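To illustrate the input format used throughout this study, we show a single complete record. The first block contains the structure-token representation of the backbone; no residue identities are included at this stage. The design step must infer an amino acid for every position from geometry alone.
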């Protein structure tokens, strides 16, 4: 007499299937398939629903991993968002314009964004927030400061420079103005701006007016040519308000025994 066949309620998935899924690069599904099958049994999914859920789980896993990779590659120094920006503190700044930029049309049209103003007014915050939006939307991005960029343009290979500063869809260059460039650095920066011109946008922050860029680059003619390309398709936003860093300090009483400094 042959033994009565027993059908377990939840047949274990053959390890070969999980291995095959991994081999096919379906790593999320390989991990989640026992759970997906279990839910399918409990909720009596149709074959169609099961397939949709399985494919959906793999796609969601991939999107999450790709986002994590983009974030790592972007080298953002801090997490900033448009939501955490207090527009009431900068009443002269158009929140409508910034929110509009947050819809990322500028990435599509390769329109540069130049944020100008004194220290502490939120230039870096806004630039990082827009860069984060782009990363969330699936674009690649890279943060750098002008100092770091100038150093690397001189010391790294052309291939590395390309990977870091040309391949990313969005390039953020922070703190233009604190460093005077050497002739070679100025030319390299010009080449970079030219290479990205009308192809991929740059978000740049600076505490200097454009009139000072000649001094910054050590070459008036080069500065004019660079600004010509940078500003041809650009949104220039000048923030002339108070420093947010000083916000709380201004509210504190003056220290005893010390005179308030002149304004
Ligand atoms: P900037 O680049 O213009 O020198 P930052 O963007 O670095 O200024 O701003 C200085 C600090 O103040 C940062 O921590 C930033 O997040 C914060 N900050 C600046 N402006 C605002 C604002 N309007 N709302 C909220 N935080 C702000
Ligand atoms: Mg800054």
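Output of the design step:
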């Amino acid at each position: 007499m042959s033994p009565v066949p027993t059908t377990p309620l939840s047949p274990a998935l053959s390890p070969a299937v999980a291995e095959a899924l991994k081999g096919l690069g379906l790593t999320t599904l390989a991990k989640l398939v026992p759970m997906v099958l279990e839910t399918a049994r409990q909720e009596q999914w149709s074959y169609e629903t099961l397939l949709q859920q399985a494919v959906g789980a793999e796609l969601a896993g991939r999107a999450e991993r790709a986002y994590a990779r983009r974030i790592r590659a972007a080298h953002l120094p801090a997490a900033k968002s448009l939501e955490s920006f207090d527009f009431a503190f900068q009443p002269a700044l158009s929140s409508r314009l910034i929110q509009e930029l947050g819809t990322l049309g500028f990435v599509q049209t390769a329109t540069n964004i130049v944020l100008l103003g004194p220290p502490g007014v939120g230039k870096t915050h806004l630039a990082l927030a827009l860069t984060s939006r782009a990363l969330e939307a699936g674009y690649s991005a890279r943060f750098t400061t002008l100092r770091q960029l100038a150093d690397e343009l001189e010391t790294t290979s052309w291939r590395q420079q390309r990977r870091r500063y040309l391949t990313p869809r969005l390039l953020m260059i922070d703190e233009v103005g604190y460093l005077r460039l050497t002739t070679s650095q100025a030319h390299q920066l010009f080449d970079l701006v030219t290479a990205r011109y009308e192809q991929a946008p740059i978000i740049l922050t600076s505490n200097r007016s454009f009139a000072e860029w000649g001094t910054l680059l050590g070459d008036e003619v080069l500065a004019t040519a660079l600004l010509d390309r940078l500003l041809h398709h650009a949104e220039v936003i000048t923030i002339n308000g108070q420093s947010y860093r000083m916000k709380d300090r201004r509210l504190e009483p003056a220290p005893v025994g010390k005179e308030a400094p002149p304004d």
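Structural context for interpreting the output: The first helix runs from residue 15 to 23. The beta strands are 112-116, 141-145, 170-176, 202-206, 234-238.
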